[in-house]
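help with these tokens:
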Amino acid sequence: LAARAMLFRRYVRAGLAGAGGGGAAYDAVFLPEWGGLAALLPKGAPLVTNLATGIRLGEWIAGRQARDFPLALRPGRVLQDVLETRQIRRSRGLVPISRAVLAWNEQHVAPLPPATVVRNCVDLPRVARDAAEAPLPDGWPGDAGAGGADRGGGRSAVRRSAGGEGDAGAAGGDRGGGRAGGGGGAPVVLFVGRLERRKGVLPAVEAFGAVLQRHPEARLVLAGASGDARFEPTRRELLQRLPGRARERVTFLGHVPGDRLAAAMAQATVVLCPSRWEGFGNVALEAMGAGAPLIVTTGSGYDDFCRDGVNALMVAPDDPAALARSVHRVLAEPGLAAHLKAGAAARLDRFDPDVVAINLAAAVRDLLAADAATAEPSSAPRAPVAPPEPADPREPADLREPVAPPESADPRPPGAPPEPADPPNPRRAAVPQAPISTSTRGSSSSSSPAR
């Protein structure tokens, strides 16, 4: 980690020093905090850090500490936390991916430089195309509801992991039929995420046990790789949380490639993203783009783009009973799924990569300009960008708005500010000139960030 940070420092310093001698001077240095790659940059470097999920936040969500790891691994994890913290505090500005990420860092990493929240983006046209055209994952239950034409057969029902655990559930056979409420086939409750506690796999499995009492024909399909067996439940342990016959209604798909995951989400009756805490939650956006009714949790990054009863159902984290009730609603109320899908589709354009790139470039430009104008000593905390006027807290904000660090110690995002007009979708209109170049001066090209 330290060697990489030193190498990156030399690379950036050469660019900054070469402005008058044929080299390249950078308008901005923009990268995430993970690994602390920019921790050793000179103080004057135009560094803006993209706050996503650093090692301290990741372990906080998982409920782990350095002492929980083998002794040989602890120094590396401590060093990574030191480098990430140093990079964050030495930045000229921050671009968190959600209000929840900003609030958490203000509580646990403060003092912070000024920050402007910019939402993540998703290639939604690709998601929609994959949802319609890609084959279903191997192992998809053969009796499960399908959304349209036959996508071909699948592999055997019981697949074996490297550890020899059997994956319960049927697969293969005819993919035809329809979703529950839409014509034949067993309804599918699809969990998307690694099989880890922080992703909510335990409440998802426990909730399914309650769902089966009302919908005995339902199936639970888990799409995600297993977690670290030192800390996370194995597949066998997950199945043991269900009554014997219920285990036969569970299918483990393991890791699923992106195109097949989109097809699976489009085919599912309802998609679950019941994480304890998410920085943003791109997979939930992908589920919306695939046209799937969605259930997520409250109190983290989902709050910035999900509205309960409008484009998703929202429940408290680690609450299997509430999760089961929401699943039952989707299975029992024929019009609810269509209502949620329509609500999601109405706001998906604002997550288009080209739209978000414009917002991101403007945020970096404004943060660097504000820092240059104030010219405060680097050792003193810089004043936060002024917050917008408060508005209806139910209205999700366009995350381009500047955000001040919250006064409350509660890591949940406060009431959302008003939602300004989105920039025009470049797929419908000409793309405006990017406010800054994310490449070097003298280059004729600028890069759109892939986030």
